[in-house]
Each structure stands twice: as C-alpha cells, then as structure tokens.
From TrEMBL:
<feature type="domain" description="SHSP">
    <location>
        <begin position="21"/>
        <end position="132"/>
    </location>
</feature>
<dbReference type="InterPro" id="IPR002068">
    <property type="entry name" value="A-crystallin/Hsp20_dom"/>
</dbReference>
<dbReference type="InterPro" id="IPR008978">
    <property type="entry name" value="HSP20-like_chaperone"/>
</dbReference>
<protein>
    <submittedName>
        <fullName>18 kDa antigen</fullName>
    </submittedName>
</protein>
<dbReference type="Pfam" id="PF00011">
    <property type="entry name" value="HSP20"/>
</dbReference>
<comment type="similarity">
    <text>Belongs to the small heat shock protein (HSP20) family.</text>
</comment>
<dbReference type="InterPro" id="IPR031107">
    <property type="entry name" value="Small_HSP"/>
</dbReference>
Length: 141
C-alpha cells in the first residue's frame, strides 16, 4: 500500500493557489512561434483524450478546451491524486495577419499543435514604381 507523509502541507496549499487544484486546474502550458509563413501554437495536454479537446476561433480569439478525467468504474480505488483533473481552458488573441480559415490542428504524444498560415495580405510583396521617364523599378514593400 502507498502511504504519503507530507511535512510541507502549507507549501502545497500555496502552490495550489498559483498552479491550480483538481477542482480548478492550472492553465495549460503553451509554446508559440512563427516559422516562415506559418504561426504555431503547441499546448501541453498529457493524458487528455483527443475527443475531449475543443478548439474554436471567433473574431480572432482562439479558444482551446480540454478535459482530463480520473479513471472510474467498479474496482477502481484512488490511492493518490496529484495530477490536475477537470476542464482546462486557454484563449489566445490572434492578429489580423493570420488566416484562421486555414487553421490545422494535430494531437500527438500529449501535445496539441495548431498551425495557422500567415495571411497573404501580411506577406512582403514587391511594388512597381514608374519614374517620369517611363522606366520601371521594383522595391520591396
């Protein structure tokens, strides 16, 4: 049988206020970066059933919700409960320079990765300048 003795109960209580509890889980951790013409957001969701993940975009606000549940059923006896359970939610405010209509999502090894292309209007383009003499010259805009 597993027994737990915890002399640092007050430290645990303070940590739960910052990092969450089973009733109020902590926020999901995120890495966000741009690579070329795509923006990526990677969320750590270990132990989450992919069917419980909900990803929506409304007015350039990306909302990710996921739920981690404890094992239940006949014969299941909870011996230790230290992992946060419940519903996790995270919102990102996306700029107008991203094409959210072409957002792609994948879930592998406990990481939800979103891939959002940069909108065509936000990419650098060449502008043709015509001089008085009729010669043309291109510059980057």
């Amino acid at each position: 049988m597993l027994m737990r003795t915890d002399p640092f109960r007050e430290i645990d209580r303070l940590a739960e206020q910052f990092f969450g509890t089973a009733a109020r889980p902590a926020t999901m951790h995120l890495d966000a970066y741009r690579d070329g013409d795509h923006f990526y957001a990677a969320f750590d969701l270990p132990g989450v059933d992919p069917d419980s993940i909900d990803c929506t975009v409304e007015r350039n606000v990306l909302t990710v919700r996921a739920e981690r549940r404890r094992p239940t059923g006949d014969g299941v006896e909870l011996v230790a409960a230290e992992r946060p359970m419940g519903t996790f939610t995270r919102r990102l405010f996306l700029g107008d320079t991203l094409d959210t209509d072409k957002l792609e999502a994948g879930y592998e090894n406990g990481v939800l990765t979103l891939r959002i292309p940069v909108a065509e209007r936000a990419k650098p383009r060449r502008v043709t300048i015509q001089a008085n003499g009729g010669s043309r010259r291109e510059i980057n805009a």
